[in-house]
What does this fold into?
Amino acid sequence: MLIKKKPGWEIPESAVTPELVYADRRRFIQTAAVGSLLAAAPFPVWGKENTPEAPSAHRYPVERNPKYTVEREMTAQKAAETYNNFYEFGSHKEISKAAQELKIDPWTVTIDGMVEKPFQIGIDELLDKMPLEERVYRHRCVEAWAMTVPWSGFPLRSLVDLAKPMSGAKYLQMQTFGEKGMAPGLRQFWYPWPYTEGLTMAEARNDLAFIATGLYGKPIPKQNGAPLRLAVPWKYGFKSLKSIVRFTFTDKRPVTFWEKIGPKEYGFWANVNPDVKHPRWSQATERLLGSEERVPTRIYNGYEEFVADIYTGIKGQKLFM
It folds into this structure.
């Protein structure tokens, strides 16, 4: 009899919980210190609920890669598309309507830094060069809520290859858009805009690192990070920045958005670990989006076999914060 041994990441789980920490802006402004986050006053919901079809809509759906499916219930589409963090549009979860003000056509991406030749490229031209596929990934927020969704997109490694980085490049720094007219959150001067994130080159080239351009078989909604969003499922969700406009290759480790705000709570690495608590709450379990069920958290969010070797030999680093 043939017995199939399932990979460690194929375990039942579903998806939800409230998200991050919010900045106490009064204390932030008065002391210029970083630390606890208290919610900034939410912005009113504004903008159009129904927006024109994304210019890349004809590309979807794309074929699913069976290597990246998980044997668990998929999060309901409505839940995944209406419960989001997107601080550019407010420090609350109900930003889906406000985010419709995001202009994604045209969308230009800058690739610069330590590359053979810096360049800019439009979103459709970029997608023409990329091998699009669908992957079902878990997503784990640092606030201990989780979801499981089918992202469409391409391996980040394919973009790295297109960029042709120099041998001395050690990190990939990524940034979101910065137009204040589109996003009221950008007028909150106490935040270190633009939203900046970074990966080591080893992480960026890992099989799991993915640039999401679609969700549930359609172009990715604006509130979920249209038209380009990072998906690194073994890390806490704040690493997965949305609406990317710049990829910069560098030999200096980026100081990331949340690292600047709360360096004792949100580190550069942010790998998921149930045994390493957040300074203010446990990470041992997670709440599944769309239900009140709590399930055990897994090391590297269940993707240990894909990524653990990246961190072998790294000492003195807070890999799980």
About this structure: The chain has one domain: 25-311.
